[in-house]
Amino acid sequence: xxxxxxxxxxxxxxxxxxxxxxxxxxxxxxxxxxxxxxxxxxxxxxxxxxxxxxxxxxxxxxxxxxxxxxxxxxxxxxxxxxxxxxxxxxxxxxxxxxxxxxxxxxxxxxxxxxxxxxxxxxxxxxxxxxxxxxxxxxxxxxxxxxx
Length: 147
Hints:
This protein is an alpha+beta fold. It has 3 helices and 6 strands.
């Protein structure tokens, strides 16, 4: 399944239930949680996510942040227009503290959404949103079909 096909399915479902159709999300065990206006992803703890003993692998955390940002972006795009091709240009991840052996949550906010460019910030936390374990800034090109 291409990213565009996944994005179309995600937008049709409107709640993020199609996150399981992405192989990387399946590998991480990511679950979408959409209650009212809040959308977040949950990465339940599994031993396969461990990097150094007792710590989550940084790649798993970075992947969760990117999935949260892309899902948030797709759900925010106008439904009456065809989805553009979504091309991440820059993904910068800041690791703030170690991720422990527990469930990890991630949510993203759109800081700018234009016709051609989107900027997002995603945050990952474990037991307390005010104590994030990592954050990411993403710059994304929205390649729209010529009309």
